[in-house]
Amino acid sequence: MAFSVRGKTAIVTGAGSGINLAFANTLLSRGCNVLFADIKLRPEAQDLVDAHTAPKNADLGRAAFQETDVTEWKQLERMFQTALSHFGDIDIVVPGAGVYEPTWSNFWHPPGSALSKDPVDGNHYRLFDINVTHPIRTTQLALSYFLDKKKPGSILHVSSIAGQISSASTPLYMASKHAVSGFVRCLAPLESRFGIRVTAVAPGVIKTPIWTEAPDKLKMFDEAAGDEWVEPEDVANAMLDLVEKDECSAGKITGGIILEVGKNQTRIVAEFNDPGPSGAGHSVQNEPQIIEEIFKSAAAGGWGK
Question: Which UniProt keywords apply (predicted)?
């Protein structure tokens, strides 16, 4: 159920920066309207929205911004209403907002500890609210709209190579991306039954603020040792393929697939017996040292108190 994005409308959460900003830019340049839904916009995102609020070039899409905390379900509902009020319809939904095991919602900084913002009596981790619950709830809202209108649609998730591997350095993040990939696979039959395609992109190590502005993560990356960045525009192009194509260089595109993106390569992740990510843009050389630092800190006494 591939379709051209030209003349369509997309909702993109997390469009204020990184991969989702790159995809929003790709959509706008191809004549697709985009609602940017995020807590805030980085300057480059604000410039993009400003330039496309009323673009002079009729071939470009229009943009609008709604401040959105994706952990608040009422705000997720409101972004659908906002998209309809601005653009009249919705065709593509990208629940892309996510966090990479920040200090404030982190397995190694338990609720109640100095760096954590997860309350000890809160009964939830904010990372999962953002990375798992928000994509699931947004998918329900998108399905409700597409089914009610009896129209095809595309729901595009942002998973990660973290959904295929494990790392002691970021256990909550790894678990969240395993959850996203599994969730997407479960919804594969929606394409043949209703014309609603649910897919996910699984990027490797992407040069975005989630890495470059997080010192604890950036020190895992060692360019001198051979680590390589994947550019967000490469991921955006793969995301476009998931909406617009029934086949790409990696193979046939259908609902439920996970499309991995490394440096100069894409690959469809097999549901069973997958060999796992390999090649440029998929590894960080200094991760073992970071894990050792974490374990030494945990062994020092008083951890989790």
Answer: Oxidoreductase
Full DSSP string of 9-52: EEEEETTTSHHHHHHHHHHHHTT-EEEEEES---HHHHHHHHHH
Q: What amino acid occupies position 175?
A: A
DSSP 262-280: ETTEEEEPPSSS-----ST
Q: Which helix (H) or strand (E) holds 203?
A: strand 196-203
- Cβ atoms 145, 157 nearer than 8 A: no
pLDDT digits (tens, 9 = 90+) for 142-173: 999 999 999 999 999 999 999 999 999 999 99
- Whether residue 184 contacts residue 95, with contact meaning beta carbons closer than 8 Å, is answered with no
Tokens of 288: 């073992």
CA of 200: how far to CAs of 34, 137, 176, in Å? 19, 16, 13
Please state the pTM of the whole predicted model: 0.96
Hey, what domains does the chain have and what are their CATH numbers?
9-213+229-282 (3.40.50.720)
Q: What is the DSSP letter of 94?
A: E
CA distances from 251 to 59, 78, 190 (A): 30, 37, 20
- What is the distance between the alpha carbons of residues 221 and 226, in angstroms, rounded to a whole number? 9
| Pair of tokens at residue 144 | 């409700």
